[in-house]
Amino acid sequence: MTTCASLSADHLMPLHEGVIYGPIASRRLGTSLGVNLLPPRRKICTFNCLYCQYGWTAPPAAQVEAAWPSVTEVIEATSAALASARAHGTVIDRMTLAGHGEPTLHPDFPEVVAALRELRDREAPRVRLAILSNATTIDRARIRQALLDLDERFLKLDGGDADTLRHVNAAAVDVERLITSLSSLRPIVVQTMLVRDCEGIIDNTTPAARASYLAAIARIAPASVHIYTLARTPALARLEPAPAEALHACADGVRALGIEARVFG
Ligand code: SF4
């Protein structure tokens, strides 16, 4: 039996205490002001990705009693962060809805987006409003419309078949519905994490996984695909980064479809 090296959960990213984190110097997003719509110190998500830098998703009982930030709290915190950035001469490229979980699960997500747009237009008109989402809620009409009101949508797809998504995202996903939803929301950037474990149980870089993934990408026809691998400690400690060759092989497959692909190794 293979013995896997593993990292302690002590190295996970701490959950956020409030709405704002950063600004962060991001390889993909430039200088990004993180906006966490999730309850403080409570990871709530429709996925439980093995690679999640925030650790495991809270069990359903812990999600029910969570205290989500109000629209007013989100706007006040974001406005204060923008004022602080201005005072320090920091140029923000993006305000990014992300945080420790799935931002579209906020009960007032459309209202939050509308208020953030107003704030951005008034106080920081050159800053782009973006989201990182796992795309599992985008078939809901009110969520779709709010997503379209943002400037940029970075949506997750780590595989093109149910088995791969069950292994990597630890969720029972209706993959056909997910692909159909993604293909009808434009423009989007698809973000894809490639990982494997040393036992060969989890691996979304195999030829079979890549073939179903590329078939999905061909249907979705995103504006661009961002491919990357582990850069931080994952929830499942024995998970390993995918090798550079696997990232580039995937990107080459995407480009062969006539779609831009960028690798962040
Ligand atoms: S979708 Fe994002 S927040 Fe949710 S478990 Fe996966 S990596 Fe973590």
Strand percentage, roughly? 15-25%
Question: Average pLDDT, to the nearest integer?
Answer: 95
The largest β sheet comes out as: 8 strands, mixed
N- to C-terminal distance = 29 Å
Q: Give the spatial strand order of the biggest sheet.
A: 1-2-3-4-5-6-8-10
The count of DSSP E runs of length 2 or more, i.e. the number of strands, is 10
The backbone outline, from C-alpha atoms, is: globular
* Count of spatially separate domains: 2
Q: How do the SSEs run, as a string of H and E?
A: EEHHEHEHEHHEEHEEHE
Weakly predicted, low-confidence segments: none
Would you mind describing this structure in some detail?
The chain starts with 19 loop residues before the first strand and ends with a strand. A hairpin with a 3-residue loop joins strand 1 and strand 2. The strands form 2 sheets. Strands 1-2-3-4-5-6-8-10 form an 8-stranded mixed sheet, covered by helices on one side. By secondary structure, it is α/β, with parallel strands linked by helices. The protein has helices at 60-64, 71-87, 109-123, 141-148, 162-169, 175-183, 207-220, 244-255; strands at residues 20-26, 30-36, 94-98, 128-133, 152-156, 189-193, 195-197, 224-228, 239-241, 260-264. It folds into 2 domains: 8-156, no CATH class; 157-265, Aldolase class I (TIM Barrel), CATH 3.20.20.70. The protein binds iron/sulfur cluster (SF4).
